[in-house]
Design a protein that fits this description.
The complex is a heterodimer of chains A (338) and B (276). In chain A, 77% of the residues lie in helices and 0% in strands. Chain A has one domain: Orthogonal Bundle (ABC transporter involved in vitamin B12 uptake, BtuC). Chain A is built from 14 helices and no strands. Chain A has 338 residues and is mainly alpha-helical. In chain A, helix 3 runs parallel beside helix 8, helix 4 runs antiparallel to helix 7 and helix 5 packs antiparallel against helix 11. Chain B is α/β, with parallel strands linked by helices and 276 residues long. Chain B has two domains: 222 residues, Rossmann fold; 44 residues, no CATH class. The termini of chain B are far apart. Classes of the chains: A mainly alpha (338), B alpha/beta (276). The interface between A and B is medium-sized, with 23 and 33 residues.
Chain lengths: 338, 276
């Protein structure tokens, strides 16, 4: 890693630390930095805990939501980078294989069932997660005849399954009648009221998956040369593709189960960073995780603490990310045509 | 003394089919070190499939591939990658890796997972870049190069892999004549150093001029295998490639000259018409 890359990473880590600190501080209830430090020290067992409203707000409302935002953003961006590299398509994102549609279907089903009294705590994220996994399994079995899991086969299978599931979601919404708002809001994505349990689930899935991905970053570079060449360079492409697809999909499934469907982070962040850092996955993937975490945390803090009325985070990322993507895309087109 | 007759690579009764359609059947071939083999044959004759079998990464449906006398399936992927390198016919790269990055990927089997390239790795890469005349392009993105430049980069990448066996699938197909001849010369050097080169070549004249032996493939079978002098002849060209051509001897090499537009037949017909 050269000096400029090292300082880029240091800057990202510093920015993430600052974002975390600022977002704990910002919010409807004013707290002082001193109260924050006291509360965290107490929770870590370094001081005696005095349960006040401020401590509860800091430790059990803001902190889990903030960490969830960072993990979801980082997970989606990292998964997006992996899908782009694996599918050899810079426009792929974590939802290309239909994982988001599967999660949305699971969640819609859980919400619809709760309307007729069939419900238990955590049903929505659990069903979303199971929906995502089931989708992944179906897409894999559809694409499985092609031993090498070529990108066209996978993308096509993902599109087919997503289309069927979208119709299914529409049907559930139709049946849900007046309660359709609950489903629609879930689909927009939100981090409101996320608990330590959500953070635990995210960390448990995202962190091992990230490590597996970072471990294979150089193999992923070689795989850009095509399967035959990568195989001849000693990369077990079939095994690596499967392993990385599953890892990135699990991260996506966890993110969607916890936060709903948040678009553009997974597409934009790795795409943008690639034009800055180049395509080397050893730099690109860790940088994507950090940048995704910073951006989603910033967006969530914006909607939570700055905007007069809280917007669903998925709407906000699409509203900011969409035009921004158009701008970069246009600039890249102009640069390439010159 | 090493036994020159011991084959480096050997295919024993190999057959391979794509979705039930036979691409190769009953292939028995031995390849020896210090020789350059040209795979020739019409399109769809099985050249690329044979190259893929020889990489050891596509096991034959029936039969066995031996590399240095051991079944290829016994080797670990990384071991194979240090024994043989492949330049494929088709490659598409959508990410902006630099020329130097790509040639450095040839060192992948030699560099430990989280290690940085050593001074020697850099030296090997520099030599390969210089040898293929792509040194000045080292910082350019592969996505911005012409087809021929990319092809040379891919050959440089295979050289940087430093393997005893080089498998080339149409390595000179997109190249202007100077660079095509240059790559053939690079391959010859590799052979003279004791390496084994197996190259699928479309240009029959080039194949005859540079190879030691030719393997003629037709409809997935070996039509002929042997020294150039024994395999490259008028009868083979007429039967396998269905062209009329002359094969001359020139400075100890076989040269192929085609009779364009079926010249002989047309001349014969014209003569016939005149006499009427």
């Amino acid at each position: 890693m050269c000096a400029s890359h090292r300082s880029f990473f240091l800057a990202l880590v510093a920015l993430l630390a600052i974002s975390l600190a600022v977002s704990i501080w910002l919010g409807f209830m004013a707290v002082t930095p001193w109260q924050i430090m006291q509360a965290i020290a107490a929770r870590l067992g370094l001081a005696t805990e005095t349960p006040t409203i401020a401590t509860v707000v800091i430790l059990d409302v803001r902190l889990p939501r903030i960490l969830a935002a960072a993990l979801v953003g980082g997970g989606l961006a990292l998964a997006g980078g992996v899908f782009q590299a694996l599918l050899l398509n810079p426009l792929a994102d974590p939802y290309t294989l239909g994982i988001s549609s599967g999660a949305a279907f699971g969640a819609s089903l859980a919400i619809a069932l709760s309307l007729i009294g069939l419900s238990f705590p955590g049903a929505i994220p659990l069903c979303a997660f199971l929906g995502a996994l089931a989708t992944l399994a179906v897409v894999f079995s559809l694409a499985g005849h092609d031993r090498a899991f070529s990108s066209n086969t996978l993308i096509l299978s993902g599109i087919i399954i997503a289309a069927i599931l979208s119709a299914g979601i529409g049907f559930i919404q139709y049946l849900a009648d007046r309660e359709v708002a609950a489903i629609v809001f879930w689909l927009m994505g939100s981090l409101v009221g996320r608990s330590w349990a959500d953070v635990g689930v995210l960390a448990l899935l995202s962190l091992p998956a990230s490590l597996i991905i970072f471990y294979h970053a150089r193999d992923l570079n070689v795989m850009a040369l095509g399967n035959a060449t990568a195989d001849s360079l000693g990369v077990d492409t079939v095994r690596t593709r499967k392993l990385l697809l599953i890892s990135a999909s699990l991260m996506t499934a966890a993110s969607v189960a916890v936060a709903g469907i948040i678009g553009f982070v997974g597409l934009l962040v790795p795409h943008l960073l690639r034009s800055v850092l180049g395509p080397d996955n050893r730099l690109l993937l860790p940088a994507s995780f950090l940048t995704g975490a910073i951006l989603l945390l910033a967006a969530d803090t914006l909607t939570r603490a700055v905007l007069p009325h809280e917007l669903p985070i998925g709407i906000l990322t699409a509203l900011i990310g969409g035009p921004f993507f158009c701008l970069i895309f246009k600039r890249q087109q102009m640069r390439n045509s010159r | 003394m090493t036994n020159r007759a011991a084959p480096v690579c050997q295919l024993i009764a190999c057959s391979f089919a794509y979705a039930g359609v036979a691409a190769l059947s009953g292939i028995n071939l031995s390849f020896q070190a210090g020789r350059m083999y040209g795979l020739i044959g019409p399109n769809g004759g099985g050249k690329t499939t044979l190259i893929n079998l020889l990489t050891g990464n596509t096991p034959p449906d029936v039969g066995q591939l031996l590399i240095h006398g051991r079944d290829a399936r016994i080797y670990k992927k990384m071991e194979l990658a240090r024994l043989l390198a492949l330049t494929p016919q088709h490659f598409a790269i959508d990410f902006a890796f630099s020329v130097e990055d790509v040639v450095m990927m040839g060192r992948h089997p030699h560099i430990a997972r989280f290690a940085n390239p050593s001074a020697r790795d850099r030296q090997v890469v520099n030599e390969a870049l210089a040898r293929l005349d792509v040194g000045p392009l080292r910082a350019r993105f592969l996505t911005h190069l012409s087809g021929g430049e990319r092809q040379r980069v891919m050959v440089a990448r295979a050289l940087a892999q430093e393997t005893g066996i080089l498998l080339m699938d149409e390595a000179t197909a997109n190249l202007d004549i100077r660079h095509a001849l240059d790559i053939m010369a690079v391959l010859r050097e590799k052979v003279d150093e004791g390496g084994l080169v197996i190259a699928a070549i479309h240009d029959l004249d080039m194949a005859a001029a540079f190879c030691d032996e030719l393997v003629v493939l037709r409809q997935g079978r070996v039509y002929a295998h042997g020294a150039v002098a024994a395999t490259m002849n008028k009868a083979m060209l007429a039967e396998v490639f269905q062209v009329a051509a002359r094969v001359d001897e020139e400075a100890g090499r076989r040269r192929v000259r085609y009779d364009f537009c079926g010249g002989e037949q047309r001349a014969a017909t014209a003569a016939g018409e005149k006499s009427i």
